[in-house]
Amino acid sequence: MQKGFNQYAPMQGVLALREELAAKTNRSYGAVYDPVKEINITAGATQAINSVISAIVQQDDEVVIFEPAYDSYAPSVVLNGGIVKYAELKLPDFHIDWNEVKKMISNRTRLIILNSPHNPTGSILGADDMKQLEKIVANTNIIILSDEVYEHLIFDGKQHESICRHPELAKRSFVIGSFGKTFHTTGWKIGYVMAPENLMNEFRKVHQFVVFCVNTPIQYAMADFLKNKANYENLGKFYQQKRDAFVNLIKGSRFKVIPSYGTYFQLLDYSAISEEKNWTLQNGWLQNMALLRYPFHHFTIKP
Prior knowledge:
The protein has helices at residues 15-29, 45-56, 73-79, 98-104, 127-137, 167-170, 179-183, 197-210, 216-226, 230-233, 235-249, 278-293; strands at 39-42, 62-67, 83-88, 109-115, 143-147, 173-178, 191-194, 256-257, 268-269. It is of the alpha/beta class. The strands form two sheets. It has a seven-stranded mixed β-sheet with strand order 1-7-6-5-4-2-3, with helices on both faces. The chain has a two-stranded antiparallel sheet with strand order 8-9. Helix 1 packs parallel to helix 9, helix 2 runs parallel beside helix 3 and helix 2 (45-56) packs across helix 8.
């Protein structure tokens, strides 16, 4: 800021940051993205997601979303006239049934939205998942939106299976990332999108009129920070310590831990506590919490 980087950044983002992202992506996944034509900085990942959907989805286009899902996906589809088709993640490990997905595909399928590591289940996709997806979308015009904001928050020695690792998928994909999630600076709202030039051209037609550009000084700061790969390569271990601490603290309770291999979410199985469905139980807990916080909320106090 003291150097004067306080005016509008280029619409595509500060070039120094895009160059660092290109180098980082190549180091991490062996993928090559042109920092000028194929990378764009955004006002957080949610803006990137909304702008991708707005650029791609038209009236009555079908979009496959895996449920449970981040809550911005479906509204963005509906706002753009699209039709949401939900594929339910399968218990107990929240995996994708690709045979089910294959049956959902039609000549109106425009977009498939992936999220790995997954919000909120903590599950991750593997190389076989990518092979199954590649078979399904082969010889189609289906676009993929790959939400990878938790790419560095991955545990237990697992590998993040970025769509970038798979050239046949990457050439039809938007890859979404977030500095806020990676560096625990969510209030700064800085994200990015990577895509082949033909797709990026469509994205920028929307992005230009949504935010135009993003916080300038923070982009320069992020560019400097990314130069040292130690700033992000050890984040998985850092967050795994937090996960392990939480899991240890609830040992001995009636909750059963559902393995979380990434993100900062931890799901718990409460079947030993109640047979109520999750929405019913959650609403009951919320009501009790409200009564504890506002004990006279439902009563009239007379003088």
